[in-house]
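So, could you explain the following?
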Amino acid sequence: MRRSENDNTGRDIKKAADIIKKGGIVIYPTETVYGIAANIFSEEALRRVFEVKNRFPDKPVSVAVSSFKMMDELVYIGENERSFIEKFLPGPVTVILKKKKTVPDILTPGTDLVGIRYPAHKLATGFIELAGVPVTSTSANISGEAPPARVEEIKVSADYIIDGGDCRGEPSTVVDLVNLKIVRKGAKYGEVLAALSQIFDMNGVAVK
């Protein structure tokens, strides 16, 4: 497993993007924790993600994008949903929306919804943009263990690691914009709660 030199230049981003294009998997930094990326259109790469994480295949996996345009290619976004999204993304919030047929079923077993993450981290969005495809957004940990905030804490195997230093941020808040509920409390929880009530004209928001 190769590791970057943490020089924050374009070399690491390009190398990671090339690996994704070839069907490999990459561990990358975000503003919350380290994540593991695979081309969502490569079934073989997706199966590797489940394997290295020791994750059951019946659990959904979110998707990371590098632009709103890339997001629009994956999910249906109404006027209210777009107002909410543009308020919080890019940033540490995962939004759940109705997927389009472009999203593989392996990522969303038993549901037509998918979580979308647009990280506010230049290394993350940089390599996704160069790869030209959305990637998986799931923490780079063995299922059931704590997600890694530093490279030294990573236990799962990958073809390359982008060393982004300490990523000890608060986990993202996960919000279901279809059923209008918060699935997981995390970063910007209070702001997310207020925005849901305001934008969708709700008296209260369910919290799972």
